[in-house]
Amino acid sequence: MTHVPTSPSPVEAGVAFPPxxxxxxxxxAVIDRALGWALAAAAAFAVWRLVEPDHAGIVVxxxxxxxxxxxxxxxxxxxxxxxxxxxxxxxxRVLRRTTGRPIGxxxxxxxxxxxxxxxxxxxxxxxxxxxxxxxxxxxxxxxGLHDRIGDAAVVDVRPREVEVPAEVERPQQIVNxxxxxLLPSPVEEHPATPLPDSIPTPTTAPAPAPAPxxxxxAPxxxxxxxxxxVTPGPAAPARPAAPTPATPTPAAxxxxxxxxxxxxxxxxxxxxxxxxxxxxxxxxxxxxxxxxVVEGLALVGRRPEPRPGEPxxxxxxxxxxxxxxxxxxxxxQVAADGALVVMDRGSTNGSYVIRKGMSxxxxxxxxxxxxxxxxxxxxxxxxxxxxxx
Length: 389
What we know:
Elements: E1 11-12, E2 15-16, H1 22-51, H2 56-81, H3 85-90, E3 92-96, H4 105-118, H5 125-135, E4 152-156, H6 177-182, E5 281-286, E6 291-293, E7 297-301, E8 312-317, E9 330-334, E10 340-344, E11 351-355, E12 358-361, E13 368-370, E14 375-378, E15 381-388
Parallel strand pairs: 7-8
Antiparallel strand pairs: 1-2, 3-4, 5-6, 5-15, 7-9, 9-10, 10-13, 11-12, 11-14, 14-15
């Protein structure tokens, strides 16, 4: 889901740039002025040393002329490319607020003239006034009076890394092989042919008894004087004994009914169990270097103070160079389901969530869920969110 900032911001080639911080703008201005004054001083010294050492007026005019010439060159660079040596070194650029393109030569000349007049020796009041108007910009884009010329805005064009939230490693299921051996076999859901209570053990069939040999006929009796001995015929073979019946095998134990059989799923068939909220830890890191694990309600601001009876676990006071951070700016904490939520507490300059290079503002009093890798801007301070399991 793509989030579009509620307030218009400079856009170039479809990429939204955040407004530049006041500290970086001040550094870029110092670099540009130091470069111009160094060139002017070198030219004035050369004139004083080589050409007219006795005419101080010529030396001063040389210094002023070189300063004006350097200002014209910088104005041409701003109008055509949006860059100056100082802005190129600090990753800033001057663009038209509505189109994201350079403001043009005419607007750049007027803008440079206003900056030059504000830089005249007035104890810094001119530059301080422009900086104050930029810090109090109601559109929260830090646009001073000189930036309104040509609808300009100074933005931060440094490349930003887009991180994809890392997948949470889910715990693997442990299979107890011993318990699986003790459980009965799985039973299919479709009706099966009922099995008999017991399976008879096959026995060996007895061999058929051979037919008995008929008894021999008695011989005719001999004369009584000398009776002949009767020779006995072959004895009839003995009838084989009946086979001893085999000992019946004990009947198999009856299978339990289908509705009472517990079927254990095979490993991997069950869905992975989501980690408990107690196993998820959220760690935040601020651009000031402060880093901690969120263990309760946290307040962020210049001098954050809890409401009466509010159970606060973390109080995070932060420095604000341009006073864009409110006293109690925002809060964040871990919800009951393990998610990290942030909420703006009605700050003056608002809070922003930056996700995959896109920025969206937070509505005061409405919590918003954060993901791993998100960045949250509280005024001119930044907080990065990390998740640990």
